[in-house]
Design brief:
By secondary structure, this protein is α+β, with helices and mostly antiparallel strands. Helices cover 50% and strands 16% of the residues. Among the domains are: 28-107, no CATH class; 141-188, SH3 type barrels, CATH 2.30.30.60; 194-276, Alpha-Beta Plaits, CATH 3.30.70.100. It has ten helices and eight strands. Helix 2 runs antiparallel to helix 3 (72-98) and helix 8 (209-221) crosses helix 9 (256-276). The radius of gyration is 42 Å and the shape is elongated.
Length: 332
């Protein structure tokens, strides 16, 4: 018997779907999957906890070893890298425990493919990290050294994986990226126990440079903190417009505090010696002439007018009187 087309279509129509039944079924399947994976999840958590303790022990051992070798900053950086690498591998194996279908090799391969993008994204961070490791391995300077980097000068507080921390002499902190430190000239003021300091002294043209140099040298030798070996020295250094330049040089401890305070003592000693021995310490002067200098009397102190009274007996050039002689004259 052949049924009408409309009757056949009516017999194949699916029953209506109940949304409540679908939601309950999905939740039931999810709960079954969760409880089925629960042992694997517990095993992965236990594995991560064990690896965490092991990584902590390895990191502590590495830092202790490098600290005994007086390299605490390198120990801190390498310890952090070791801990991060161990925990990253532990997470990959934990994922394989929870999801057996996941292969750690596939994850590592995917990370390798994306390493180029990661490298571009974290270029500055990786560059500073590599520079920091090279600085800690090569050790051009250490914690506590006083260095000059570009326009910054201070004491090295800490060398981190990303930056070097400086404490300036006026009590501020400067954070310099390690890549800048590694690629820039660095002056390490405390690389050696002693360093040389110097300053210039100007004396009048009426004084004897050799005598003044010996006088100042004797005064510098009496300053506490100036090293006897290498010995200090005072050298005639130049014939300038208003004075003869003497350069005083001496050696002292390389710490900034010693350099600054001993320089002040040397300056005071030189000034005292100049006052006691009548050595002129002139300041820059200039002479302005407002007349025609082609006169026949120019150069004749008895007749010229610029600065010298005319007459047959012009005054003699004035000289500084030593402090001791002036005091004796006042006493007499």
């Amino acid at each position: 018997m052949i049924l009408p087309l409309s009757s056949a279509a009516a017999t194949t129509t699916p029953p209506p779907i109940n949304p409540y039944t679908v939601i309950v079924t999905k939740l039931h399947d999810a709960a079954n999957g969760f409880f089925a994976q629960l042992p694997n999840m517990i095993g992965a958590i236990v594995f991560l906890v064990i690896v965490w303790f092991v990584a902590k022990l390895l990191t502590k051992g590495l830092r202790t070893l490098l600290h005994k070798r007086h390299r605490p900053d390198l120990g801190g950086v390498l310890g952090s890298l070791l801990f991060g690498a161990v925990m990253m591998l532990a997470v990959l194996f934990a994922a394989a425990i929870v999801f057996p279908s996941v292969n750690p090799g596939d994850i590592i391969s995917a990370l390798g493919i994306g390493s180029v993008a990661i490298g571009f994204a974290f270029k500055d961070i990786l560059q500073n990290l590599l520079a920091g490791i090279l600085l800690l391995v090569n050790r051009p300077y250490r914690r506590g050294d006083q260095i000059v980097v570009k326009d910054f000068e201070g004491t090295v507080e800490h060398i981190e994986s990303r930056a070097t921390l400086l404490k300036t002499y006026d009590g501020r902190r400067v954070i310099i990226p390690n890549s800048d430190v590694y690629t820039s000239p660095v002056v390490v003021n405390t690389a050696f126990p002693h360093r040389r300091d110097q300053f210039d002294i100007g004396i009048g043209y009426g004084d004897q440079p050799a005598h003044a140099a010996e006088t100042f040298l004797a005064a510098i030798r009496t300053v506490d903190g100036v090293l006897a070996d290498p010995a200090p020295e005072v050298l005639p250094w130049g014939l300038d417009d208003n004075f003869i330049t003497l350069r005083a040089r001496w050696w002292t401890d390389s710490a900034r505090t010693n350099v600054v305070h001993i320089r002040s003592k040397v300056v005071l000693a030189v000034w005292q010696a100049a006052a006691e021995h009548g050595i002129d310490l002139p300041y820059p002067t200039s002479v302005v002439l407002f007349h025609d200098q082609t006169e026949e009397t120019d150069g004749d102190r008895r007749a010229q007018r610029e600065g010298w009274p005319a007459g047959r007996n012009p005054p003699r050039p004035r000289r500084m009187v030593p402090v001791a002689s002036a005091q004796d004259a006042a006493t007499d």
